[in-house]
Design brief:
Layout lengths: L9 H4 L8 E7 L5 E2 L2 E11 L4 E12 L3 E2 L6 E2 L1 H5 L13 E3 L12 E2 L15 E9 L8 E11 L4 H4 L9 E7 L32 E5 L7 E14 L2 E13 L4 E5 L4
Parallel strand pairs: 7-8
Antiparallel strand pairs: 1-11, 2-5, 3-4, 4-9, 6-7, 9-10, 10-13, 12-15, 13-14
Length: about 270
């Protein structure tokens, strides 16, 4: 009768599966000198049209550089180049893989040398201009008990550091391998669950059967932008009681994304 409690391979326990469900190993360095710079300037002022109406106008310009790596411990994939390259052959290819201009591990001649140390391929966005508008209006000429306020603005977010941290284990600085029952684990036992040697620091070519994968920042990185709008009606019904009715809305785009590319599929 098959058992799943002993240290047996599929052949030993009489089933299609080994007692080892999944086996994994990792070797190399996780060290990254991540850097990001944020700069901003703004002007803002109040403009009083009359005793009942005031405008608040302003504009803010932000420069968010995105995340770079200071010591050459980062590499990645240019997915657009992979898609435009011929399918890999058994001899292997490095098409689409890139390394920065400074790197601690020798960059293979076949690799693209990225013109920047940033994790994304785009230049620093310079269009992060956020106008701001607000107003306060007293509609009753002889009473200040009713006030209408509103505002609209464009806001930009700094890089999402938590997402970029997913690149800590980037190839070839750190290598990992996970095997399960569908990838050569049927004959594994607890004593020797994983026997594939790992060679961090070595560039491995992509082949039709290489089973390589990479986590990367989207090449078209841009600062996430949000638009916010609000309208507020405030009325005093008693000397110590104020009623307020408000509406707000926001929308955004260009949230920073992380992709995990299975290189064998390109």
């Amino acid at each position: 009768m098959p058992t799943f409690f002993w240290e047996e391979s599929a052949a030993q326990n009489g089933s299609p599966y080994s007692n080892v469900f999944t086996s994994g190993a990792a070797q190399g360095t996780y060290y990254k000198g991540y850097r990001a710079r944020e700069m901003a300037s703004f002007v803002q002022d109040d403009f009083k049209v009359n005793t009942r109406l005031t405008f608040n106008l302003g504009v803010r310009w932000e420069i968010n550089t995105g995340v770079s790596e200071a010591f050459g411990n980062m590499s990645g994939l240019a997915t657009a180049l992979i898609r435009s390259s011929p399918p890999p052959t058994a001899a292997g290819t490095f098409a689409g893989s890139w390394c920065p201009p400074i790197i601690r591990i020798n960059c293979r001649m076949a690799l693209l040398v990225w013109g920047t140390t940033r994790s994304a391929g785009t230049a620093t966005p310079l269009h992060n201009v956020g106008p701001r508008f607000g107003f306060a209006w007293q509609p009753l000429s002889k009473s200040s008990s009713l006030v209408v306020r509103g505002g609209w603005g464009v806001f930009y977010s700094v890089p999402n550091g938590n997402s970029v941290l997913q690149t800590l284990g980037g190839y070839p600085f750190r290598l990992a391998r996970v095997s399960d029952r569908d990838f050569g684990m049927r004959q594994r036992r607890f004593q020797v669950p994983f026997t594939v040697p790992l060679t961090p620091g070595v560039w491995t070519p992509r082949t039709p059967t290489s089973q390589l994968s990479e986590t990367l920042v989207a090449a078209n990185y841009d600062s996430p932008m949000t638009q916010q709008f609000s309208l507020d009606l405030q009325g005093q019904v008693l000397p110590s009681t104020v009623l307020e009715l408000a509406y707000g809305r926001h929308s955004g785009y260009a949230a920073l994304g992380i992709a995990r590319a299975e290189m064998k599929r390109f």
